[in-house]
Structure formats: structure tokens, C-alpha cells
């Protein structure tokens, strides 16, 4: 994995060891960027509880024996932010559930928290609505999926393990998946490092995302993210990509996460619309 500092990024490219690499080609780690945010020192359990504990939040939960989170299918409940923080900043051995919170930009709590961080200007077309704040527990896993945008994952507190697979190896990765999982209507299988090694993928990256670092995930790269500590806080920061001929249709599909748009390399617009319609019906049935 390439590791750089913000000074290596200029004009939507990274300059590394004498080479110029455009965004979208390879993943990389930006060291230290988030460590300069006020959030890095201020988003502690006590500070968040004191400042924002009365806010109501919608948190997702699964059985503790599972730990796999996919917001399209997970159950959710409304609780105070203080209550949620008490759940995720400890192991809660008597609780049968794992918890996870996604604070979207439309929520009043996000408006309060956004003064504590700085969105980088390394790319154009920042997607405010696709950005957020994620807070979770040790053992939570976001299973393999891909997104169409340029994505940064900024780690504010705790550590996460990332697994990244090149888009062209999606067919190999998905060989054993339930067909439903290919449409993000059910979680994909959770892979261990040894299981991924056994697939003999040509382009596979694995590593630890430390507090203060930012992981860049290029469009369409498959990624699985494992949460390693309680009270884990990270931020997805997204920028629109033009790496597809049907960006508006792909944006429309994001509520149902139509993986097959890219997996099947569909270029016929009528066929794409039929796929979107079918997937929307499946998604509504799940809801």
C-alpha cells in the first residue's frame, strides 16, 4: 500500500517516488491528515455525551453472533446519542446485540459536528450528501461491496482493518456469494485474511487504518472493513466520479446499490433501466 502525506497531492494527482498517479488508479493511505482536526482530540466519550447526548439518533443493530452491518437490511432503533455512546464505548457482555451509527449529513447532529473537521480539496465534485460519520464497536464488519465514487475513509478514533480487491477480480471474489448479496439486499460473506489468500487474487490489499490516517478507495474497488476497537469513529468522505457513461443512472441506483451495473459492464441504457427497475422491486420487497 502506498503511504503519502497531503503534500504529495497536487492537481488531483499524487506524486510518489518520481511517478505521477491520477486518482482512481490505486488505493493509498494519507498519513496524519485527520490528526489535525479538532475532532481527533475532542470526539471522546465524555465530550460527545456532554455536548450532544440529548440528540436522538437512529442506530443499526444485529445479533452479537453476527456483527455484519449493511444498512439496507439491518434493523434499527431510535435512542438518545448518550445511550448509543454508552452501548458502543464498552463491550456490554450482557447485551445480545452489536450497534452501529451512521450520522448522515441531513441529520442535525452532523451539522453540529462538522465544525470539528476539514474536508480536503484534493478532488472536485465533493458529494456532501454521501459523506457521514460512523461510530461502532469491536467486531462490527462492513462486508465486501463497491461504490462508484472516489472515497476517503478518515479514521478519527480506534483502528480498522481494510481489505481491498481490484474491480476486475470481482468475479473471482463473488464465486461463492449468495445471488441476493450481489444486489446488496443481503450481506456478502465475511472473509478472513486466510480465505482471501486462498483465492490467489492478483490485486489484493490488506492493512490497518490507524487513528489520524485516511484510506483512499478508488471507484468500484471492492472493500471489506473490520472494526477492531470499541468507540470506533471514522468518516467516509466522497467525491463524484465520472468513470462511467451513465452517472445520473448510477446515482439513482445508489439507494439499491446495483452492483451488476458495473459487474456486468452494461452499456445499453434500456437494459440498464430494466436492471434498475428489477432491483428496486427486490429492494422494496426486502424493506
Q: Enumerate the strands of the largest sheet in spatial order, edge to edge or round the barrel.
A: 1-5-14-11-16-9-8-6-7
Total number of helical segments?
A: 9
Structural class by SSE content: alpha+beta
Which runs of at least 5 residues are low in confidence (pLDDT < 50)?
A: 245-263
Q: Mind describing the biggest β-sheet?
A: 9 strands, mixed
Please trace the helix and strand order, writing H or E for each element: EEEEEHHEEHEHEEEEHHEEEEHHH
- As a percent range, the share of helical residues equals 10-25%
Mean pLDDT: 85
Q: How would you describe what is shown here?
A:
The chain has 287 residues and is of the alpha+beta class. It has nine helices and 16 strands. It has helices at 38-42, 45-52, 81-88, 108-113, 170-173, 193-198, 247-253, 260-263, 269-286, and strands at residues 2-4, 9-10, 13-16, 19-22, 28-30, 56-63, 75-80, 97-104, 132-136, 141-145, 150-157, 160-165, 204-209, 214-217, 222-227, 232-239. The strands form three sheets. The chain has a nine-stranded mixed beta sheet with strand order 1-5-14-11-16-9-8-6-7. Strands 10-15-12-13 form a four-stranded antiparallel beta sheet, with no helix packed on it. The protein has a three-stranded antiparallel beta sheet with strand order 2-3-4, with no helix packed on it.
Amino acid at each position: 500500500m502506498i503511504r503519502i502525506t497531503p503534500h504529495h497531492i497536487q492537481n488531483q494527482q499524487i506524486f510518489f517516488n518520481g511517478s505521477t498517479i491520477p486518482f482512481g488508479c490505486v488505493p493509498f493511505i494519507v498519513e496524519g491528515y485527520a490528526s489535525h482536526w479538532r475532532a481527533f482530540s475532542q470526539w471522546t466519550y465524555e465530550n460527545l455525551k456532554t455536548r450532544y447526548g440529548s440528540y436522538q439518533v437512529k442506530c443499526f443493530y444485529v445479533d452479537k453472533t453476527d456483527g455484519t452491518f449493511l444498512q439496507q437490511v439491518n434493523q434499527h432503533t431510535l435512542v438518545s446519542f448518550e445511550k448509543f455512546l454508552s452501548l458502543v464505548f464498552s463491550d456490554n457482555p450482557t447485551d445480545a446485540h452489536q450497534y452501529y451509527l451512521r450520522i448522515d449529513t441531513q441529520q442535525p447532529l452532523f451539522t453540529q459536528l462538522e465544525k470539528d473537521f476539514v474536508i480536503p480539496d484534493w478532488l472536485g465534485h465533493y458529494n456532501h450528501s454521501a459523506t457521514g460519520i460512523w461510530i461502532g464497536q469491536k467486531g462490527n464488519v462492513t462486508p465486501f461491496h463497491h461504490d462508484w465514487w472516489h472515497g476517503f475513509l478518515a479514521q478519527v478514533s480506534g483502528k480498522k482493518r481494510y481489505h481491498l480487491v481490484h474491480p476486475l477480480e470481482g468475479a473471482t471474489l463473488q464465486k461463492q456469494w449468495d445471488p441476493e448479496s450481489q444486489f446488496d439486499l443481503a450481506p456478502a460473506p465475511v472473509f478472513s485474511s486466510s480465505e482471501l489468500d486462498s483465492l490467489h487474487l492478483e490485486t489484493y490489499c490488506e492493512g490497518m487504518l490507524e487513528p489520524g490516517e485516511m484510506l483512499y478507495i478508488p471507484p468500484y474497488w471492492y472493500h471489506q472493513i473490520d472494526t477492531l476497537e470499541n468507540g470506533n469513529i471514522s468518516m467516509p468522505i466522497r467525491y463524484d466520479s465520472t468513470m462511467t457513461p451513465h452517472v445520473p443512472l448510477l446515482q439513482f441506483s445508489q439507494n439499491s446499490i446495483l452492483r451488476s451495473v458495473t459487474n456486468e459492464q452494461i452499456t445499453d441504457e434500456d437494459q440498464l433501466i430494466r436492471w434498475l427497475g428489477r432491483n428496486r422491486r427486490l429492494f422494496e420487497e426486502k424493506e
